[in-house]
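Help: why these numbers?

___
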Amino acid sequence: MPNSSTPSQTRIYRIVIVDDHPMVREGMNNIIRPEQDLTVCGEAEDRFQALQVIDTKQPDLVIVDLTLKDSSGLDLIKDIQALHPLMKILVVSMQEESHYAERVLRAGAHGYIMKQEATQKVLLAIRQVRDCGIYISTTMATKIAATLTGKQRAGNQASITSLADRELQVFELIGTGYSTRDIANHLHLEIKTIETYRARIKEKLGFKDASELLRNAIAWTHRLP
């Protein structure tokens, strides 16, 4: 008679990787593949493909980059949250954590890790999201706590965080050289809508004219090392 107290085999945690760079996806695969409790069950390079793969594979966790082909990772996060509210999402991005971690958590993600740290920390982040529900760095946790308790001082960074998700997306596209028409086509929106976003950005960030908006957008977009 078999021993009824024998523990059942640990369930393997299934992961989909969404990144528009094949080498990044392969690198992430190489990190996860040796782990007995984790497996990559699918990959995608853009928002549309990601939603198809997620719907088919029904993973436990989706790893998402913020910059995807023809779309924003933030939009994908919101889509996943709406369609699969129990699915975990971990953002792995080049974007500075201090500018984006709170934003992606509000959108529905469960963790944030910068690509520069991914090799050392991605397994820790995956398991922490799986076991504890959320992963952010100690530094970012301290900043969020300071914000919640009203101890964070105002400044340029606070101004950037005042932008709504779509406004920040438009601001970054301006910084990469997109015209108003280009941005409208890229985001599948009307030109007048983009002009409204531009006006809101100027007002929120205190820019006097379009030249100052462009200058600061370029500086912001190219701030990463």
Notes: The chain has two domains: 13-145, 156-221. The domain at 156-221 is CATH 1.10.10.10 (Arc Repressor Mutant, subunit A).
